[in-house]
User: What shape does this take?
Amino acid sequence: MKANKIKDDVFWLGVNSPSSREFHGISTPRGGSYNSYLVLDEKPTIIEGTGKPFIQEYLKSLKSKINPEKIEYIIIDHAEPDHAGAINEIKEVCSNAKIVCTEKCKDFLIAAFGVQSEFVIVKEGDELNIGKRTFKFFPDPMVHWPETMMSYLVEEKMLFSADLFGTEISHEKLFADEMKPFQEITRDYFAIVMRHYAIPVQKAIEKARTLEIEYILSSHGPIYRQNVQSIMDYYYKLATEPEENKVAIFYYSIWHSSEKMADEIAKGVEEAGSVAVKYDINQSNFVRMMAEAMTSKAIALGSLTLFAGHHPLFNAFFDFLQLNNQPGKKAGVFGTYGWVSEAVPKLKQKLMDLKYDMIGDVDMRFGPKTDKDLLRLRELGKKLAE
Ligand SMILES: Cc1cc2nc3c(=O)[nH]c(=O)nc-3n(C[C@H](O)[C@H](O)[C@H](O)COP(=O)(O)O)c2cc1C
Ligand SMILES: [Fe+2]
Ligand SMILES: [Fe+2]
Assistant: This one.
């Protein structure tokens, strides 16, 4: 991969990995990308490193633009291995470079990779002059880890935002406006990387909104150069009010009666003018389900009773669901049993423990049989969709 020009003196040095299919538990149908950037000025500067698997490709791209010994600064915004895993290999060729990062990031880089380097430690609002241009730094702890920060290149109005505003997608096209739509992938990335830290994310976006920004350069996914507001607004919505006119139904069924209940609830949801999405929890990606629950105005969970409870996969499901932290969201429960009903009461209790607003449940021995049974299920769907 050759270094791609973003603007005079500013290059993308990143690595695309179109064949990657997984990242932090998300399925990534369009691959992944690990971005790094180079600014050529009196003191040439790299922003972000790369991960170990990509180091050879990365160094080739770097050397196509500059003799690495001339690099004066390596700004590290985040110490996770996809950003800084190959920092020692980068430092080896950029032998004169100092690492610019937060105090916490220095600690992380030493603890994780045993980095030995001269460091320039920066705090909120600190500036670093690199010649004609100046960086300004804005630490944003917990977006995604405690040591993270954003770096702003003042004269170019460029925000290097690390994981913030990212999408795990390979981008053969450098700019977001040249890509096919990918909002669903941004949503899934947000769900697992950002949602649990919704408040720090919200604060970081509010801070970013005070800057004049023409380019957003995240560590994952394409670069935003037009309408940077669109990604900022979408991230803000996901951090604050992600709900859409949609009800997500999650179920587990062996002999299809609980599945039939899910279908009937979905009909009720659609009759009420809302969108229903259904997931068999045994066949579906947990992060995708978490993202769907996050963006739904209500959820319904259903299981047959087996082994005197609901299916054990729901335990993992609840662990993901609690990361969304959405108390007060409407929820319904449905399920079946053969001799003692135990799935529905347990699902209900767990949703109440997570402070969901329980608006109804339907529990049926061996599943629905009559039109009246089906009507009860559609009624539950309607109530969830209201
Ligand atoms: C593997 C298995 C374990 C079951 N364990 C229980 C149980 O512990 N208690 C109970 O009341 N019914 C139990 N049942 C009966 C189911 O709850 C009942 O047949 C239900 O209607 C099946 O729903 P489904 O069609 O959605 O799979 C079990 C069924 C299966 C297949
Ligand atoms: Fe990260
Ligand atoms: Fe990352």
Q: What stands out?
A: The pocket of fe (ii) ion (ligand 3) is lined by residues 80, 82-83, 163, 219-220 (CB under 6 Å). Residues 256 and 367 are 9 Å apart (CA to CA). The longest strand covers residues 244-252. The two ends are 51 Å apart (CA to CA).
